[in-house]
Amino acid sequence: MPALLFLTTRPSPLPHVLYLALLPLHKWISRIVVFQSLLHTILYTVYYARIGALAKLKKLANIWGILAMLLFIMIAVTSLPRIRRVNFQLFYFVHYAATWLSVVMLQYHARPNMNMISTFNIILLLGQIIYRLWNTRLSTISVIPVSPAISVVEFPLADLSKKPILPSGHVRMNNYHNFWLKRWFYHLIPLQHPFTIASLPNESMVRLIVRTGKFPLKTNSKYYITGALEPKVDFMSKSGSRDNNRLLPFQSATPMLLLSPLSFNINAKRVFMVVGGSAISFGLPMLRILNFNGVTVKLIWVTRDHRDMKILNVFKNNYNGLEIFVTGTLGAEQDLQIDYVDYGPDPLGLPHPELQEPVPQALPSSSDYNPETTLTSSSYPKYGSISTDKSAFSSDLDHSQKHNEDEFDFTNVYSATNTLKRKKSEPKLFGPPSPFHKDEAFRKPKVIIPPNDENYKSDVESLEDDDMKLTIPAGVKLVFGRPQLSNLDYQWCLQKECSLPSEVDDCCVMNSDVNITHVDDLANVWVVAAGPKGLVESTKRWATDGGLHFHEESFSV
Ligand SMILES: Cc1cc2nc3c(=O)[nH]c(=O)nc-3n(C[C@H](O)[C@H](O)[C@H](O)COP(=O)(O)OP(=O)(O)OC[C@H]3O[C@@H](n4cnc5c(N)ncnc54)[C@H](O)[C@@H]3O)c2cc1C
């Protein structure tokens, strides 16, 4: 039991371990404990039956044991994924209440006594409550609705008991109840909701991007906020002195930059991130920090509704490297996926003939406009499963232009007549033909029609005026449809940075160190995934199949 409880402590006292990473171990030890207890109960019952002493089961000490066994079974049943996902509150309350009760009951059941173990159990459970109360503050929040699915929650950084150090940490939120008894009950059984901090650690307001759910968030209401809890990202750290050897060739090491609150020690040259839905809260601060520190970064955001993109206008970051895939409003956020088929021939394209001979060529993606980047393989304009025709709806922004914002106009798409037509007929495109072609950059407001086919299915029939024109910041690429991880992404991960800028403007000198092997290249690349479980799992398989480092931030427990 103490090991079981120790693994649930938040934050984990173990160094460099996020408490969530210990949950699989907690689950397995729990299964063993429940199985052992069941075996213990069955064997004793059979033994008593054989010697004709079943009446012994009615002894008070044994009744405590049987009750504890029933509580274990309740915990096991309510923890089943089906029940846990449908009714998280039930799972949580049963888990907490049954744990406390079973700790007490086992103390009365055990012979010889288990005073030592019970003391450890109580210390761990009470320690959790004390630590949580110590790190919890009351704050009044503001809620800014962004789209039907997403809101931004704001509160002052000063209200946090622990200031965040790294980007993309999280806080845990809980209702503040006016009735004191209810308040204390929820301190004992704390149904807290974890939300990632989407603002930067140095910003005076903490901002969260929250998916609309059952947890009620009201402007000007009080909430208990615990944290911040730091993420454990292996390639990023913050320390007083920066290791200059790790700086990339084009990174500036001026004291001003090194002293900047956005300066971090980053042990990666390229970071490829995939996030789904509200997990953009994890991706945005990472994108900002990685861009600032000179890391080449690509952030793929898979979301259901094009209106979620309005979040970009709230944050006003440097969005270099952001690529958005809008998949359609049918289905739930938890079903968001990224395709990766690893059983077909050569899914990562290795060995790939193009990889043998470097052919300098620029990807149209915004993140590759780094003048010091040279590709080691031929590159392609679009992602896997989106065919060239369909990708006509994507928009790559031309960095040579001066304006930094573009606008999508959805007016015609969702106009009353258009909607009626669409309902009556087969899925088909209506309205003026799309102004976008594969390589066309655009600057002025244009009409874009989301394809009403298998790539983008929407159950939204009409939109508010405000939702028809979306302003998309520069550096962002937009595709309607579901992305697929492919060898093109793998090639992007293996592109090399120049060691030195060349005297010729449009060229650079590749790293000539012959000792640098393929494995060294892989060691400098990180793949990060956050959000729905399916999306995180596919990305993990893709990254590990290709020998790339992988970091995950699953939003489901
Ligand atoms: C580390 C981490 C960071 C997260 N960051 C964000 C974020 O930035 N934005 C965002 O919208 N969501 C985030 N989530 C998910 C978010 O915490 C849940 O979606 C939210 O708590 C659901 O509340 P609900 O009452 O609507 O849930 P319900 O409708 O009751 O349950 C829906 C699902 O949400 C999950 N969930 C519910 N309560 C909790 C809880 N207390 N702890 C963990 N999971 C829970 C369960 O998987 C459950 O199946 C994060 C989760 C984790 C673990």
Keywords:
alpha/beta; RBOH/FRE; 557 residues; 4-stranded antiparallel β-sheet; Elongation Factor Tu (Ef-tu), domain 3; binds flavin-adenine dinucleotide; 31% helix; 6-stranded parallel β-sheet
Description:
Strand 20 (525-531), helix 16 and strand 21 form a beta-alpha-beta unit. This protein folds into 3 domains: 2-132, no CATH class; 136-229, Elongation Factor Tu (Ef-tu), domain 3 (Beta Barrel); 270-401 and 472-554, no CATH class. The longest helix is centred in the N-terminal third of the chain and has 28 residues, at 23-50. Strands 17-12-11-10-20-21 form a 6-stranded parallel β-sheet, sandwiched between helices. The protein has a 4-stranded antiparallel β-sheet with strand order 1-7-4-5. By secondary structure, it is of the alpha/beta class. The model is unreliable at 350-405 and 416-447 (pLDDT under 50). Helix content is 31%, strand content 19%. The chain has 16 helices and 21 strands. Flavin-adenine dinucleotide (FAD) binds next to helix 5, strand 5 and strand 6.
Instruction: Give me the Rg, rounded.
Output: 27 Å
N- and C-termini, Cα separation: 21 Å
% residues in beta strands: 15-25%
Overall geometry comes to: globular
Mean pLDDT: 77
Low-pLDDT sequence parts: 350-405, 416-447
Strands of the widest sheet, in order across it, are 17-12-11-10-20-21
Number of helices: 16
- Bound heterogens, unique: flavin-adenine dinucleotide
According to DSSP, the number of beta strands is 21
Helical content band: 25-40%
Q: How many structural domains are formed by the residues?
A: 3
| Biggest beta-sheet profile | 6 strands, parallel
Give me the secondary-structure category. alpha/beta
